[in-house]
Amino acid sequence: MFWICLTLASLTTAVMAVTKEDISYQRELTGDYWLDGAHGELQKALENQNRGVAKNIILFIGDGMGPPSVTAGRILAGQLQGKKGEEFSLTFEKFPQTGLSKTYAVDEQVTDSAAAATAFLCGVKTNRKILGLNARAQDGNCSSTTGANVHSILRWATNAGKSTGIVTTTRITHATPAGAYAHSPDRDWESDRLIPSSEKQCKDIAYQLIKENSDINVILGGGRAYFYPENYTDPDPDPKFNTSEVSRTDGLNLIQEWVAEKKEKGVFVYNRQGLDQVDVSSTDYLLGLFAQGHMSFDVERNASREPALHQMVEKAVRILQRNKNGFFLLVEGGRIDSAHHDTQPVKAIHDVVAMDKAVKMVLDLTDSSDTLTVVTADHSHVMSIAGYATRGNPIFALSDLDGVINTKRTLDHLPFTTLVYANGPGYKVPRPNITEVETGNVNYVSQSAVPMKSETHGGEDVAIYAHGPQSFLYAGVHEQSYIPVAMAYASCIGPYAKEENKLCARPAQNIPNVENSSSRTSIPRQLYILLTYLSLIYITCHRLVL
């Protein structure tokens, strides 16, 4: 009996010693694994019908985060955790509701970020380069803005008594954040210096933020230089940044004016240390500008001086959620777009992963029973995931075929990377041999098919991921302008603030949070039963031997 028990004990130990990665791969070889997974997803879909009212709304925009960027981000995030990567899921990919957004502008097949921001924040599609104005406004024409103003969901939330905030890794006056508060016929009018003398009757975007939107509670991002007058000494100057191109000519120090207006209720910070010291329990207004221009790419960020996106988001949520009426928060992972324009996928995809970390932070701080969280993009880019690389091949590496660098399928018999671009600055003739090139280097410029100084946006639909009250409204294919309208309905604000809104006319009865319910065990049923059986035998034998 002793030897039988010893054998069974050894067998149990051996079975349980199988690595998680091996088990995962073996599971994939069976049909039951995929069927069980689909069944689990189906059960979640049937359960997740949260029809309550959204007290809080959080909108994440991955600037330029089209489907290829999401897929590459998923793979990178998995590989950073030692997995093959393809089987991994980003936090927002686990949201129970998904849809698609059609991103074209009124005048262009492929949108820019300004027209897109006006759509997903104001509910109105407009022309290229236009912010917070309908399509009657003309690019660079101030007189065309008369009667063309449209208001954003941030303004709707403020009017409903909610707190509001904007967090971005770009300049706070850049297209996406500016879409929440500005009205401008030219997205580039971020400082008064940048407005032509013939159009000075229009106010620049930085001025509009400070002087006309002083009720925004949290403002975090970059772009300090656009708020200071010329010859002003920046508190943390970047020697590479030319302030003379953007500093103000009107003599205004907008940051100083903001501080004076807020007095003890507000705090201005310009580095990571300052942000860390902010007391969220006593701060009603927070202005943080952490760079003279854009903030750094996450993979290049100096963590001791510049906060990460998720750190800014945490501070913002903790301040905003003190309002019993709820809040609206716009969060942008803005440097994804910048890197794609330079065809630098390492920077772009690391910023996708950084934004996903911010999404996770939001889920940790909020309750999906009363918080609607939506993740989407303003547009895509022309990066694609090419070739037939082996499962688990590093996402920034050369595409391989059966474990060998793939040159058999290329007519010039030269290798290529998995991530390539349809156009951009990486075009070279003849195509260079990049066999010895470190394509995973942060500054690597990916090859492109068409020569351009700057890579372009892509026009395909982008995904919408939704979680929380009324999130099912985002299932299907929608105009990009639908996004804030559905949010307003879910939160009973803006056009749906009146009692005619049936959702808001009845008492709010938010259902329990079922969206975070744990899924079924990831171990196949047969293996689970075997392990349980062997464990029982082991325990029984152990007692007998003793």
Automatic annotation (TrEMBL):
Q: EC number(s)?
A: 3.1.3.1
Which keywords has UniProt assigned to this entry? Cell membrane, Glycoprotein, GPI-anchor, Hydrolase, Lipoprotein, Magnesium, Membrane, Metal-binding, Signal, Zinc
Name the needed cofactors: Zn(2+); Mg(2+)
Coarsely, its chief localization is membrane
Q: Which reaction equations make up its catalytic activity?
A: a phosphate monoester + H2O = an alcohol + phosphate
Note the InterPro entries from the entry: Alkaline_phosphatase, Alkaline_phosphatase_AS, Alkaline_phosphatase_core_sf
Task: Give the binding site residues for Zn(2+).
Answer: 63, 337, 341, 378-379, 457
Q: Which residues bind Mg(2+)?
A: 63, 174, 176, 332
In the UniProt record, the signal sequence range is 1-17
| Subcellular location per the Swiss-Prot or TrEMBL entry | Cell membrane
Q: Does the keyword Cell membrane apply?
A: yes
How does the cofactor attach, per the note?
A: Binds 2 Zn(2+) ions. Binds 1 Mg(2+) ion.
Membrane topology label: Lipid-anchor; GPI-anchor
Active-site positions, per UniProt? 113 (phosphoserine intermediate)
Q: Which GO terms describe its cellular component?
A: plasma membrane; side of membrane
**Family, per the entry?**
Belongs to the alkaline phosphatase family.
Know the name of this protein? Alkaline phosphatase
Phylogenetic classification of the source organism? Eukaryota, Metazoa, Spiralia, Lophotrochozoa, Mollusca
Gene, per the UniProt record? LOC106062023
